[in-house]
């Protein structure tokens, strides 16, 4: 059997389907023209390389000659990697959610030849799939008017979902935000952290906001919930005890059994979250999580270009050489006893190799429910002895892991996810003062600009095998600007700040829609979809618009530019109602609400040793503070006329209006605390 057209693609996910009997096509203009020429409906299947159920449906259905015959006869079949084409995924996910009330991957839609959807769903068993497609084909052939009518109605629904109405300028009320958080807190899981119920997603953006909120408003209940959640996630099976790094989510309510795929975007944001949380309580567990997750990312995902790959698959080869979800991560009691010998009893007590930690078929996934200090007391061990014993056990298991087949790697490089990792390295550096984190942030940031940014400030979305492909989306621009701003605050090199401003101005020119006061997901100049999506809901990655709101606010302070501030506030006001009503899915907007509702400050640092001067500020948790610095005369608005030879001074400023300089950093921190309160 000859490979299909996916053989010419670079995406690992698409290449996995290149030998299917289905006549898969990539998403491109040639394919869409073919559908219109043949007047066949489009059958669009969307997934990603780490998706377990995508692999299940491929094996059950797309490898079937019988199913392929139905698909090839009646449809023009398109297979899409959602990570390569997030705009297409967003459009059709919205369509499926309108039609069915839910969504997920694999995602499937059937469309008119022009791309307008009229049917959709997610995972199907083979017989159900074939039966449904045959019915849809008959409907399309014999009742085209009915299909067209429904497609038009659904298109209108998509426009309605995408609609953002520009709101009048009003003042923000802290009491409104407080009520939203109070309502949200009724859904907190006070035993295991996170939200009540299952499945449980980490949602780092939610806990970044709640960490800020609890800190700024001195809300002990919120702070306690954040730290409970971080502890339980770190103890749970969603965290890889042996290799480091987090899986995407847990299928249960105690963070125990994950869908085992590991994604760069999750781990990058969780590094940031644990790093920032460390500033508030100095918990050594958080330090361990950050170090181990960074070690995992660098050992498994670092490319030769100084950038990072995308993910590990949920599936890996089992002992029978068959792909199986979680095969790399589960352990039997017999395996553990054989490897750990006399230390098995202690290890099994700490990590619950018992009914609490049982997964399936006699396999266990490690989960902790007591602290090491509690275990040490129970076993009458000092904490150092316990830690040494557990580390020896882990090292033995790591050696055994080397004999197992690792999960499959998706080795494409995505711009926005790498930018999130740059931000993670910056946050880790400010918390732990580890120079390698700073160096890695700078290297990765520069590599991203060198490989994926053109001289015209055109960003590219993906890079693989020496080729950059696909125009950058708003998420790529927003995350890259955010990363540039963060690198500036640990280097005080104007290059990063000026590049962020130039990229922001390009984004305003290419993506901003003055009518709605929001940014479209694709450039207005290059969009080819039936609807240009507006990414406005915070999910496992914050919405691109909310990130841009934060970027614009920061730049308004750096450059004293009222227009940036005006656009950021307008965006927030547009989203205020949804954010207050549904805080769980708008946390990054609520973080922006905090910045605009509670006084926001700038600290200007001027002197000959900026690193030494900034360290106390980096180590402090200051979510309402922006840093700027120079070791020479500067034209930047925050720094102009504030540098003096042979002096090291700090300025505490608000809206570019600064108090008298001081050489005492503790005086600045005390003043800030007083003003905050």
TrEMBL record:
<dbReference type="Pfam" id="PF03190">
    <property type="entry name" value="Thioredox_DsbH"/>
</dbReference>
<protein>
    <recommendedName>
        <fullName>Spermatogenesis-associated protein 20-like TRX domain-containing protein</fullName>
    </recommendedName>
</protein>
<feature type="domain" description="Spermatogenesis-associated protein 20-like TRX">
    <location>
        <begin position="4"/>
        <end position="158"/>
    </location>
</feature>
<dbReference type="InterPro" id="IPR008928">
    <property type="entry name" value="6-hairpin_glycosidase_sf"/>
</dbReference>
<dbReference type="InterPro" id="IPR036249">
    <property type="entry name" value="Thioredoxin-like_sf"/>
</dbReference>
<dbReference type="GO" id="GO:0005975">
    <property type="term" value="P:carbohydrate metabolic process"/>
</dbReference>
<dbReference type="InterPro" id="IPR024705">
    <property type="entry name" value="Ssp411"/>
</dbReference>
<dbReference type="InterPro" id="IPR004879">
    <property type="entry name" value="Ssp411-like_TRX"/>
</dbReference>
């Amino acid at each position: 059997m000859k490979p299909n057209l996916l053989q010419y693609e670079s995406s690992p996910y698409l290449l996995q389907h290149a030998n299917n009997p289905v006549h898969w096509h990539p998403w491109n203009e040639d394919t869409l023209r073919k559908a219109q020429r043949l007047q066949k409906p489009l059958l669009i299947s969307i997934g990603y390389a780490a998706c377990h159920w995508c692999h299940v449906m491929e094996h059950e259905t797309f490898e079937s000659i019988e199913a392929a015959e139905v698909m090839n006869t009646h449809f023009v079949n398109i297979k899409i990697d959602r990570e390569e084409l997030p705009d297409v995924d967003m459009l059709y996910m919205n369509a499926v959610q309108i039609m069915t009330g839910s969504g997920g991957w694999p995602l499937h839609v059937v469309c008119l030849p022009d791309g307008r959807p009229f049917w959709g769903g997610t995972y199907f068993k083979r017989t159900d799939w074939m039966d449904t497609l045959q019915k849809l084909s008959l409907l399309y052939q014999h009742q085209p008017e009915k299909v067209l009518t429904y497609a038009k109605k659904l298109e209108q629904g998509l426009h309605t979902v995408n609609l953002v109405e520009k709101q009048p300028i009003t003042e923000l009320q802290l009491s409104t935000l407080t009520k939203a958080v109070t309502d949200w807190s009724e859904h907190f899981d006070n035993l295991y952290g996170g939200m009540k119920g299952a499945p449980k997603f980490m949602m780092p953006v939610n806990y970044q906001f709640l960490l800020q909120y609890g800190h700024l408003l001195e809300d002990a209940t919120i702070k306690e919930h954040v730290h409970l959640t971080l502890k339980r996630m770190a103890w749970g099976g969603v965290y890889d005890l042996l290799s480091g790094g987090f899986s995407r989510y847990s299928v249960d309510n105690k963070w125990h059994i994950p869908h085992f795929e590991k994604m760069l975007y999750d781990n990058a944001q969780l590094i940031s979250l644990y790093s920032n949380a460390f500033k508030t309580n100095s918990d050594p567990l958080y330090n361990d999580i950050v170090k181990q997750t960074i070690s995992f990312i660098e050992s498994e995902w670092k490319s030769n270009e100084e950038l990072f790959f995308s993910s590990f698959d949920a599936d890996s080869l089992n002992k029978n050489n068959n792909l199986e979800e979680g095969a790399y991560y589960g352990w039997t009691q017999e395996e553990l006893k054989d490897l750990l010998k006399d230390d098995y009893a202690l290890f099994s007590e700490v990590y619950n190799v018992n009914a609490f930690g049982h997964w399936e078929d006699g396999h266990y996934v490690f989960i902790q429910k007591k602290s090491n200090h509690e275990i040490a007391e129970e076993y009458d061990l000092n904490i150092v002895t316990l830690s040494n014993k557990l580390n020896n056990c882990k090292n033995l298991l790591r050696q055994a892991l080397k004999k197992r087949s690792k999960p499959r790697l998706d080795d494409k490089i995505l711009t926005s996810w790498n930018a999130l990792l740059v931000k993670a390295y910056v946050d880790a550096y400010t918390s732990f003062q580890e120079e390698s984190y700073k160096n890695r942030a700078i290297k990765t940031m520069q590599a991203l600009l060198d490989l994926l940014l053109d001289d015209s400030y055109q960003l590219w979305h993906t890079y693989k095998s020496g080729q950059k492909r696909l125009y950058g989306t708003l998420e790529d621009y927003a995350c890259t600007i955010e990363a540039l701003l963060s690198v500036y605050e640990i280097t005080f090199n104007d290059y990063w700040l000026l590049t962020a401003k130039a990229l922001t101005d390009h984004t305003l020119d290419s993506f901003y829609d003055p009518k709605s006061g929001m940014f479209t997901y694709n450039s207005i100049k290059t969009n080819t979809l039936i609807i240009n999506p507006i990414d406005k809901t915070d999910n496992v990655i914050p919405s691109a618009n909310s990130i841009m709101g934060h970027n614009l606010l920061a730049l308004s302070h750096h450059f004293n530019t009222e227009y940036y501030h005006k656009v950021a506030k307008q965006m927030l006001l547009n989203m205020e109602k949804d954010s207050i009503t549904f805080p769980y899915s708008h946390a990054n907007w609520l973080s922006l609400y905090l910045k605009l509702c509670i006084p926001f400050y700038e600290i200007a640092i001027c002197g000959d040793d900026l690193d030494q001067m900034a360290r106390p500020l980096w180590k402090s948790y200051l979510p309402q503070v922006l840093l700027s610095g120079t070791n020479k005369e500067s034209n930047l608005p925050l720094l102009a006329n504030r540098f003096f030879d042979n002096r090291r001074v700090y300025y505490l400023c608000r809206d570019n209006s600064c108090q008298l300089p001081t050489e005492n950093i503790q005086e600045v921190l005390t003043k800030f605390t007083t003003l905050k309160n």
